[in-house]
């Protein structure tokens, strides 16, 4: 599926080595004054070439609005943005090569055909469209703030704190708000092999009552969103797997912002684990670790889930 959401839907399109990628958003309320600087900021956080630990592919990632916006406000029509690819090197991907650990083999098995140039739709380049959608979603729910950061990278782990700030995170090229831990994380990437890690995320200002029993519980929707991100391998909300080692008298006060799958008005907290990337010693330009650029992707998908649930809730009560 290339579409995600229920009332608020995003449909992404394009390939890593095609002319462009983009997103069509339906369900965006009309009359929303869209601050496009939010889109620019978020795309900058995801963009390649930010530091020596990210891919060297040079993409400016300029978002062009094709429809749904007039005089700075949404019209209620499908809101469409496109980002042109400018720095493809398709010759780095021989047609006959099945890259170990990638989706090349499975995509070929599923469809009988595949775009061998950088993975086509299975490339993480697709997430540029999600980041645009997330920047729009951030502006739909009044007072909502989504903040993610690197809480683990390879063997370095930091304590999760609600008090971490943007400046602390952005002073680190791996987006870890702990300066000492950040240095150890960078050193792990510089060793030459690929490494994985964990991104933690807090959602503040989430309205009370979001989530739909029984199959669309809020943590389930967040898990769906996070596990759809390339290289994601694990999700836990609140105490997650740690809850299995707690007694109820302790865990009852640590619910991660939901009860019965519905938001309770307190900050929502979750973590997403990412595997080491599979591109080791293979031609092309790749990240040795997806974590630094995935932080804003986690934020984008979380914002989209909350905005979709917010609009669903408005339809549920007169």
Question: What does this protein structure show overall?
Answer:
- The chain is of the alpha+beta class and 318 residues long.
- The protein has one domain (3-316): Chorismate synthase AroC (Chorismate synthase, AroC fold, 4-Layer Sandwich).
- Helices cover 27% and strands 21% of the residues.
- The strands form 4 sheets. It has a 5-stranded antiparallel β-sheet, with helices on one face.
- Helix 1 (36-46) runs antiparallel to helix 8, helix 3 packs across helix 8 and helix 6 runs antiparallel to helix 8 (291-316).
- The longest helix has 26 residues, at 291-316.
Low-confidence stretches: none
CATH superfamily: Chorismate synthase AroC
User: In what order do the strands lie side by side in the largest sheet?
Assistant: 1-2-3-7-4
Pairing-aware structural class of the strands and helices? alpha+beta
Number of domains: 1
CATH third-level topology: Chorismate synthase, AroC fold
Percent of sequence in beta strands: 15-25%
**SSE order, one letter for each helix or strand:** EEEHEEEEHHEEHHEHEHEEEH
Cα radius of gyration in angstroms: 19 Å
Q: Which CATH architecture?
A: 4-Layer Sandwich
Shape by Cα distribution:
globular
Helix share bin? 25-40%
What is the tally of beta strands?
14
Biggest β-sheet strands, sense, barrel: 5 strands, antiparallel
Taking the alpha carbons of the first and last residues, their distance comes to 32 Å
Mean pLDDT: 91
- In the CATH hierarchy, what is the class? Alpha Beta
Q: What is the tally of helical segments?
A: 8
């Amino acid at each position: 599926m290339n579409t995600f959401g229920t009332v608020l839907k995003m449909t992404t399109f394009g390939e890593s080595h095609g002319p462009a990628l983009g997103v069509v958003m339906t369900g965006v309320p009309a009359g929303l004054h869209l601050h496009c600087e939010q889109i620019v900021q978020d795309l900058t956080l995801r963009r390649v070439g930010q530091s020596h630990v990210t891919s060297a592919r040079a993409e400016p990632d300029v978002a062009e609005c094709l429809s749904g916006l007039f005089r700075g406000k949404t019209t209620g029509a499908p809101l469409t943005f496109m980002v042109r690819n400018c720095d493809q090197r398709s010759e780095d991907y021989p047609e006959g090569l099945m890259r170990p650990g990638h989706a090349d083999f499975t995509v070929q098995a599923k469809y009988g055909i595949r775009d061998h140039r950088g993975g086509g739709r299975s490339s993480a380049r697709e997430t540029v469209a999600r980041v645009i959608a997330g920047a729009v979603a951030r502006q739909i729910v009044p007072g909502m703030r989504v903040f993610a950061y690197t809480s683990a990278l390879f063997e370095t782990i930091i304590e999760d704190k609600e008090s971490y700030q943007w400046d602390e995170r952005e002073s680190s090229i791996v987006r870890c708000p702990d300066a000492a831990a950040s240095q150890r994380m960078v050193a792990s990437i510089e060793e030459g092999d690929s490494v994985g890690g964990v991104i933690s995320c807090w959602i503040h200002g989430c309205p009370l009552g979001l989530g739909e029993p029984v199959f669309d519980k809020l943590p389930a929707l967040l898990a769906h969103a996070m596990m759809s991100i390339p290289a994601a391998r694990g999700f836990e909300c609140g105490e997650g797997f740690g809850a299995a080692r707690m007694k109820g008298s302790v865990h009852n006060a640590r619910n991660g912002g939901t009860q019965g799958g519905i938001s309770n008005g307190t900050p929502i907290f979750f973590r997403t684990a990412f595997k080491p990337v599979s591109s080791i010693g293979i031609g092309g330009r790749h990240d040795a670790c997806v974590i630094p650029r995935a932080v804003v992707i986690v934020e984008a998908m979380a914002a989209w889930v909350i905005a979709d649930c917010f609009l669903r809730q408005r339809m549920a009560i007169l």
